[in-house]
Specification:
With 224 residues, the protein is an alpha/beta fold. It is globular and about 40 Å long.
Length: 224
């Protein structure tokens, strides 16, 4: 289902994982792309917002995981895909996820479903500005994980760095992360540097429509 977050932003609930669609000053932006098996639903939900797949001007990818890139690969989008490194190199097949931890080993096993050779990749670094959004490198869940924050839209997307569960915020757990300690440091860094935004969307869980940055700051204080 599609849920309106703000006048120009929507949560696309793909059953267990979220994608987001928003109008950033006339530039239609997709945040993450769901799973390979959710592609039909994602396309239908986009059309419910009265846009079409061909209307998408850019994609902001928070990280390389099958439930965030699997659907994107099958969409056939020609728009540029912004993604942090080395996650972008994993996506194009230029690099392989490492076998030094269980997360990387799982990603490597799922590579046949996660290769985006034909995508137009735009590498993202910490501090890059993409439209009204600023990119924050937040490694830990994956090495190239990126959070995107727009002060002017009062809107942010934090991928899987943080999970919402029954109204509470939870750091990316160790069994889903490359490095849970690094994920914790990324949360602290993001909480310290983030702009004031009301609405925050998560890869998993219910978005916060109000006091998003306040809640993120409170999470930082609780884990410091």
């Amino acid at each position: 289902m599609v849920f309106e977050l703000t006048e120009n932003a929507w949560q696309v609930d793909l059953t267990g994982v979220n994608a987001y669609l928003l109008d950033d000053g006339g530039t239609l932006t997709l945040v993450d792309g769901g799973t390979p098996w959710g592609i039909s639903k994602l396309m239908r939900e986009i059309e419910e917002t009265e846009y079409t797949l061909n209307s998408i001007d850019r994609v902001l990818l928070t990280h390389y995981d099958i439930d965030h890139v699997g659907g994107l690969i099958r969409l056939g989008i020609e728009a540029p895909v912004y993604v942090g490194m080395p996650d972008g190199a994993f996506l194009t097949g230029q690099r392989k996820p490492p076998l030094t931890n269980s997360k990387g080993a799982l990603q490597r096993a799922l590579r046949p479903f996660m290769r985006g050779h034909d995508l137009s990749i735009e590498p993202v670094e910490d501090g890059d500005e993409i439209g009204s959004f600023t990119a924050y490198h937040t490694p830990g869940h994956t090495p190239g994980h990126i959070a995107y924050m727009s002060e002017s839209l009062s809107l942010g997307f934090v991928g899987d760095l943080i999970i919402e569960r029954r109204g509470e915020l939870i750091p990316s757990p160790w069994y889903l992360s490359y490095d849970s300690g690094q994920a914790k440091e990324s949360i602290l860094d993001l909480a310290d540097r983030q702009p004031a935004v009301e609405t925050i969307g998560f890869g998993h869980g219910v978005p916060f429509l109000k006091n998003g940055s306040v809640r993120l700051a409170e999470l930082g204080q609780s884990i410091a």
